[in-house]
Design goal:
The chain is mainly alpha-helical. Helix content is 75%, strand content 0%. It has five helices and no strands.
Length: 125
């Protein structure tokens, strides 16, 4: 599906999915920091999620960002690396359940962000 053909409803859902995942990751980071556990992976994912959200908002709402090509490529790699876990969770989620719907939206949002990141360079976005 071309990015121009993504409905307004799906765009809003994708942005909300990223915002929700970012919020969840921020809370996890706070909890991990309080417990003194290693936060490197969560911080890396959080940065990638923020870049993914910025790519969606730039493409669909014209919002500016200051990410470099390298940061965008790294974010694309990190987000792509989340798919196996999401797919496992999806397979275990109850049919028709809220968790399955949430995962469908998150997966679709990540697919859209990766599509944007793979077709644009920092100078283009």
């Amino acid at each position: 599906m071309s990015l121009e053909n993504v409905s307004s409803e799906e765009r809003t859902g994708a942005i909300r999915a990223f915002e929700s995942t970012i919020h969840k990751s921020e809370n996890a980071l706070i909890n991990m920091t309080e417990k003194g556990t290693n936060t490197t992976l969560v911080q890396k994912r959080l940065t990638a999620l923020r870049i993914g959200l910025a790519m969606l908002e730039h493409t669909w709402h014209g919002e500016s960002h200051s990410y470099t090509d390298e940061e965008i490529r790294e974010a694309q790699h990190v987000i792509t690396g989340l798919f196996p876990s999401l797919e496992t969770q999806y397979g275990k989620a109850k049919v028709g359940g809220a968790q399955k719907t949430l995962l469908e939206r998150r997966i679709r949002a990540f697919e859209l962000a990766i599509q944007i990141m793979s077709t644009k360079k920092a100078a283009d976005v």
